[in-house]
Write a structure and sequence with these properties.
single chain, 948 residues, seven-stranded parallel β-sheet, six-stranded antiparallel β-sheet, globular, hydrolase
């Protein structure tokens, strides 16, 4: 007897173009399995994946994300749908007993398919976002070896890309229930096969006579979250021909330290299911007192319980088992009466939203748990608390949601409607959405059932910059209506049994008809999101910048590092833009054709914003351009988030940046590139979105303390120090003891140095928020600033300043995983503080000034300590330092990209003032046989130094 449960079919697949295969599906699955000799059309296949992903894997087409290679790949509009219609074939073993049943499951295919198993044909109907489950019990081979062939057809309306490109091509893809980005956008080139393929998990599931289908878990809170009830409703199918007497079990466990689980609830219910019938069963509510709650990133722990539901059938034993990690939490969403923006509450606490827009992990749908974990961990590291899954992309996969649950990222999930493909654009698109509205709703319902048990899922939205057609919108509103007890806050009554919330399709999250309606943008659907270009940093703090309470999309630049350009483009793409100075003094950037193809967005906006790279001096080459771009990236995104946060609750309730990442090697709007290397903007966000944060208001020059947590901060102070290029400190102040109420921004002190007569054209500012009791640092924020109307050109000769550094590293190695703690100390000779704000430092302030410059490292088991000294005779700030990790092997070709990616940094692109020590934690995994080397670069260290 085969053990009950699911087995993934994720290896051993081969594929071939349908027009090159002579056999039909019946013969493919009843004769000898096809093989891959040199003359065969068959090749190793990417499953899960797409046709184009398979062709790239076999080097039959070039890497479409490299340079201009996408232009060499034939588009489906020119080739016809048959060209991208492919067979996928595999074998699997499954031998069952007489009372067992087997389902063949496809979690998603694009767009329709014919399935042949052991000579038997099944049809997978249309729709990119629906699951398919086929009962194959009666057609399995008795010997256990089974032959499976799947013929996958592309979308019905792949469309054609207009000569000038455009948002969603000619919009024909909008007639299908499919991802719309594939026809290209202003940030993406077209995907030539329209993502045709078996793009998500394939599995077989074995169960006994009774099968569990789509459990729905809902928690109800009472008495200020002290009393909690867990409701669960499931569908059960009796596949046998006899009356099934069943014991239905639900178990809730929490994981303790050391992989020990504590079972908090176990309930057993008896029921009888008639033969061949589907029944819905609702458990009596499970009671919990003060459970561990799930909180978004920055608000608390992401506590998760393992809910297990199993069913035993009399005379058979365990028939099926289902489990899911589940978080106890309540999400509410209303329109704030002060700002007009949408206000989110989690467990009764308001949460200021700072996050970004997400398209998908990879444009060829090469999706994996490992990549998803990196993606979501990156977002959590930026201190974001929400991800918006944009309507032109995917209904994201369960693995994506799993890691959002783990790392505390709230998810805004849109359905498959965009303004460009569903009502506007050039040419004007069809306003009635997909041709088959019933198919759309079938996919929507199935997606809801797939994702609704995830704690991170915060809201459903009908579409991007558009609402669904009226009938679809009405259906979604009705089927996603809130349960009555999710519409109010402090209900103390028990839930009547006939109003069990788990009987709703969802019932726990708000549905919003479109991304610019009901508390988002101007709330009326007018085009009031954006802007999407470079801005002056101080403008984000001004009264006139964005007048609505919640901006769902505001975008800007996203240039990666030079190594990424070299790794993703031929030498013709290494030329930096031509800076064309116009009559009004503004600079227009003219990028090379490859950058233009990769959707480069300039660092200037002629007539409105002067070139922000040029502020540092005219870039000499690719390395110089990219390094200066990182300076701009850091300032731009830190200012964006600090400007929004400065008006928390008084003007804004949240902001989502367009966009967090690129599903290909694009050059705009990203915090990490497609190769998974972070830009400096990543760390600008990491700084600005700290739950507890000290910042400079660039418009008023007031130092502000931000507390987005639920707890008041007592006995804290701010240390302010200004540093000049020669290493002197002309301004130093430690504030009196202050407190910061929860969920508030407070003004602390005006930074008067910029108005002083002795202010230098370029200077550095270091802000530190610390506890007075033990001098521990709560927030550290470093700025480089210039006169109003000035520039940073004095930083160019500052590159020649040689500042001594001491770098101590401790390394912990566990198999292929490395964890390194770096202590970076600026060993400049300490300079006399010129001005002490008209008073002399007392002993306590001297102590603070010393101790808050020392960041505690971690002391744990390590594989050794290494110390590197970088010589220098000058005094000053070690400016814009950044680590990178490389393979140290000696057999690399010249110019080869040696970076090990991804790498997780606690901070990067950081600066260290004289006498200060900064602690940086680095973690990564190395491929087998590779020895890592850690390098340090910086504004004063452009040659690079190997530090480990």
């Amino acid at each position: 007897m085969t053990v009950i449960g699911k087995t993934k079919l994720d290896s051993g697949w081969i594929a071939a173009r349908s027009t090159e295969v002579d056999l039909n599906g019946v013969r493919l699955t009843t004769t000898r399995p096809p093989s891959i000799p040199p003359s065969s059309p068959w090749m190793e296949a990417a499953v899960p994946g797409t046709v184009l992903g398979t062709l790239v894997k076999n080097k039959l087409v070039p890497d479409q994300f490299y340079g201009l290679e996408n232009e060499a790949i034939i588009d489906i509009a020119d080739s016809g749908r048959e060209y991208y219609t492919f067979w996928f074939f595999t074998t699997f073993e499954c031998k069952i007993s007489g009372n067992q049943h087997v389902d063949l499951n496809f979690r998603a295919i694009n767009y329709s398919a014919e399935v042949y198993l052991n000579g038997h044909k099944k049809i997978l109907p249309k729709g990119m976002f629906r699951r398919h489950s086929l009962d194959v019990t009666d057609i399995l081979h008795p010997d256990g070896l089974n032959l499976l062939a799947v013929l996958v057809h592309p979308p019905d309306h792949p469309g054609r890309i207009p000569p000038k490109g455009g948002q969603g091509g000619d919009h024909e893809i909008g007639k299908d229930v499919a991802a719309q980005y594939v026809e290209g956008w202003d940030w993406m080139t077209p995907i030539r096969d329209m993502n045709t393929g078996i793009w998500d998990e394939v599995s077989i599931s074995v169960n006994g006579p009774v099968k569990i289908i789509d459990p729905h878990l809902v928690t109800m809170f009472f008495d200020n979250f002290k009393r909690v009830y867990l409701h669960a409703t499931i569908e059960l199918e009796n596949k046998s021909s006899w009356m099934a007497e069943c014991s239905l079990n639900i178990q809730v466990a929490t994981e303790l330290e050391g992989n020990i689980c504590l079972v908090e609830h176990l309930q057993i219910q008896e029921l009888v299911i008639p033969p061949g019938k589907h029944v819905q069963y609702t458990f009596p509510p499970l009671f919990f007192y003060k459970p561990n709650l799930w909180w978004p990133n920055g608000m608390g722990k992401q506590s998760l319980y393992n809910v297990e539901i199993s069913i035993d059938v009399k005379g058979y034993g365990e028939s099926d088992l289902w489990s899911h990690y589940f978080g106890f939490r309540k999400i509410e969403s209303t329109i704030d009466h002060v700002t007009g923006g949408r206000l989110f509450k989690v467990n009764g606490q308001p949460i200021f939203i700072r996050g970004g827009n997400w398209i998908l992990s990879d444009g060829l749908l090469r999706l994996s748990r490992k990549r998803y974990e990196t993606d979501i961990r990156f977002h959590a590291s930026m201190n974001f608390n929400m991800i918006r899954c944009w309507g032109g992309g995917l209904a994201e996969r369960p693995d994506f949601y799993h890691y959002c649950d783990i790392y505390g990222l709230l998810v805004w999930q849109e359905f498959w409607i965009t303004g460009d493909c569903d009502g506007r654009g050039d040419p004007v698109s069809n306003p009635d959405g997909p041709l088959d509205h019933d198919l759309f709703m079938l996919c929507a319902r199935d997606t809801i059932k797939l994702l609704r048990n995830h704690a991170s899922l915060a809201l459903w939205v009908g579409g991007n910059e558009q609402t669904p057609p009226d009938d679809i919108n009405t259906a979604l509103q009705n089927e996603l209506k809130l349960h009555p007890l999710f519409q109010c806050m402090n209900t103390s009554e028990d839930v009547p049994q006939d109003k069990d919330p788990s009987l709703y399709l969802d019932g726990t999250r708000v549905y919003i008809q479109g991304s610019m309606w009901d508390g988002f943008a101007n709330g009326k659907g007018d085009f009031t999101d954006g802007p999407y270009e470079i801005q002056y940093p101080e403008d984000f703090f001004s009264d006139h910048f964005y007048k609505y309470g919640f901006n769902p999309e505001v975008g800007s630049v996203g240039m990666p590092v030079a190594a990424t350009i070299r790794a993703t483009m031929p030498k013709e793409g290494w030329h930096i833009p031509f800076f064309q100075k116009q009559a009004d003094g503004y600079i227009k950037e003219i990028p090379n054709p490859i950058w233009d193809y990769h959707k480069y967005i300039p660092y200037s906006k002629p007539g409105k914003v002067h070139n922000q790279i040029e502020l540092y001096g005219h870039p000499k080459d690719l390395d110089d351009f990219c390094e200066k771009a990182q300076l701009v990236n850091y300032i731009q995104y830190r200012a964006l988030l600090e400007g929004w946060t400065s008006r928390m609750w008084t003007k804004y309730t949240g902001v989502l940046i367009w966009k967090n990442q690129n599903p290909w090697t694009g050059l705009r709007g990203q915090f990490y590139d497609h190769l998974l290397d972070q830009t400096a903007g990543f760390f600008g966000c990491c700084c600005a979105a700290e739950p507890i944060h000290v910042q400079l208001n660039l418009a008023t020059h007031f130092v502000e303390v931000v507390n987005t947590t639920c707890d008041e901060l007592f006995d804290i102070a701010v240390e302010v120090s200004v540093w000049e290029l020669d290493g002197t400190c002309p301004y130093y102040k430690v504030t009196e003891r202050i407190s910061a109420p929860p969920k508030r921004v407070i003004k602390v002190i005006e930074m008067k140095y910029p108005k002083s007569k002795t202010v230098k054209p370029v200077y550095f500012l270091l802000l530190k928020l610390f506890r007075m009791s033990d001098f521990s640092t709560l927030s550290r924020n470093f700025y480089w600033l210039h006169h109003p109307g000035g520039d940073y050109k004095l930083l160019e000769p500052y590159r020649k300043t040689k500042i001594p550094l001491s770098i101590t590293s401790q390394v912990l190695i566990q198999g292929s995983k490395y964890e390194i703690q770096m202590q970076v100390q600026n060993q400049s000779k300490k300079q006399h503080i010129k001005s002490l704000n008209n008073h002399v430092l007392d002993s306590e302030e001297k102590k603070v000034g010393l101790l808050t410059w020392i960041t505690r490292g971690f002391s744990s088991e390590h594989n050794g300590e290494n110390k590197v000294e970088i010589d220098g005779t000058d005094s000053g700030v070690a400016f814009f330092l950044h680590f990178s990790v490389h393979a140290a092997n000696k057999d690399h070709k010249k110019g080869e990209d040696t970076r090990i990616l991804p790498v997780h940094y606690s901070d990067n692109y950081f600066s260290v003032v004289p006498g200060e020590t900064v602690s940086i934690k680095i973690s990564f995994e190395v491929p087998q046989g590779v020895t890592p080397r850690v390098s340090l670069h910086g504004w004063n260290y452009h040659v690079g130094h190997s530090v480990l």
